[in-house]
Structure formats: structure tokens, C-alpha cells
Amino acid sequence: MMKLVFQTAAAALALTAMAPANAMVGGAPAADSSVSRAVMTIVGSRGNFCSGALIAPDLILSAAHCITPDATYKIVAYDTRRQPTLLDVKRVALHPQFNAQGIAAHRASADVALLQLATPMPGGIAPVTLGAPLQPIAAGASFTVTGIGVTRRGDGKSGGTVRSASLVATGRPGTLQIRLVDPATNNAREGLGACTGDSGAPVFEAQSGRAVIIGVVSWSTGANNAAGCGGLTGVTPLTLYKDWILKTARSWGAGT
Predict the structure, then answer these.
(1) How far is residue 60's CA from residue 77's CA, in Å, rounded to a whole number?
(2) What pLDDT digit, counting tens, does each position of 37-53 carry?
(3) What gap in Å lies between CA 121 and CA 75, rounded to an integer?
């Protein structure tokens, strides 16, 4: 997934205070408020920004390729008036089996990371439910991607608002990787999908009447697998990694 560069964390905070049109790349609607407040912006000291989801009062789930061990990170959160504030990150962890070269080549890898806040999330923001996709995963199964990425590729000012896209699984989805596509365009032309800033975004599946995080966004392509956005959205499912997430959270004493 491409990463948009900022000179400072303050610049990223200014971006998130803007109110661009409610559309993910391809024209998806704004995210449902029941999950949108739990989707966070992760800002890195080395110039990238990604998406993440609050899964416990002090714990953010994102993608490992968003995290550089020698960088520092801040979380952008909003109060009830939609005013942004920067929160400190206490520590981060990448899954030990993560392979950056694999993700860069759109191959399956353990592209999962956790960030622990220095203090619990303020403002009564409710964490979202952590899970795994229902098995077996069939081509055509429906999922929802919810992130803070740009609505127009290359236009950083169009990012920073939580948006959702309803996509379906294509190819041979499994426990290592799920490839999602806009069913209206089927990767033949640009459609709905993740873009710059949506790396690490939560991917939801409806289970027993509620939205459950079943994976994170790892990469995207343009139509017909070209470079860009609006073609395929690559997802790392949590099937094989949920136990690591829970074990790491317990070792940190993070809220559950």
C-alpha cells in the first residue's frame, strides 16, 4: 500500500481536521457512526500515515508494514465535537512472521501490528469486536473496508475522514490472504477500494448481527492489477494471528 508523506505530525493533524467529501476512492459513502469513531489515524515520525482500529481501551490494531521499529507514532483521536487530538503511543509490536518483501509483492504475510496507547482512549470511544472470517471463505463473500485514506490518488488533502467500501472476495480466498474487489467493476475499471492511508484499516464482516474485525488492509492495486487504487484490495485475515494479538495484549497488561 502506498504511503503519503507529511513533513510533521502537526501537518497530519491539520489534514484530519478538514472535511473532504464523504467518499473513499471510487465513491463509497461515509462510514457508519457505530464503527467510525473506533477507526484511528496512525501518524509516524518518518512521514507516513495509516489506519488502525481500537480493539481495547488502550490498544490499536493495524498492519505491520505501517510500523518502522525505529520511528515514533501518534494516534489521532476525536472528541464528541469532532476536534482532533494527538495521543502518545507507549509501545508497538509486529508479528514475528511478518515479511515486508512479501507484502510489497502482494504475497501473503503476517501483516499485523499492535500499538499500545500511553493512556486509555478518552471520550468513551467503544472498541470494536475482534474476530476472524467465517469459514470457509467463499468467492463473492461480502466484507466492509473502513479507513481514513484519500478519496483521490495523489491528493493528500482528500484523506483524513473515515469512509467505508462494501467489497466482495475474489479468486481463492483463504486463511492467508483475501483479495477484495468492487462487484460493480470487478477490477476491469476503477471502482471502490482502499488507497493511500488505508493501510492497516479494519476489514469487517457481519456476524450474528454485529460488525466484527476479521482482517486488515495490506495493499491495493489499480484496475486490471495496475499500480494505484480502485482495483484489488489485499487483506490479511486474522484467522492465524488472533491468538498472537490476544497473547501480546495480555503480556502488555492491555485492556480487553
Answers:
(1) 11
(2) 899 999 999 878 899 99
(3) 10
Cβ distance 213 to 53 under 8 Å?
yes
Reported as type and span, the H/E element at residue 235 is strand 232-237
Could you read off the pLDDT of 112-166 as tens digits, one per residue?
Answer: 999 999 999 987 788 999 999 999 999 999 999 999 887 666 545 555 678 899 9
- Beta carbons of 121 and 57 less than 8 angstroms apart: yes
What domains, with CATH codes, occur in the chain? 9-19+36-127+241-252 (2.40.10.10), 130-237 (2.40.10.10)
Q: What sign does the dihedral 149-150-155-156 (CA atoms) show?
A: negative
Q: Locate cell 459513502: which residue?
A: 29
Task: Using the structure block, give the residue that is written with the C-alpha cell 495496475.
Answer: 226
Q: Which residue has the cell 474476530?
A: 131
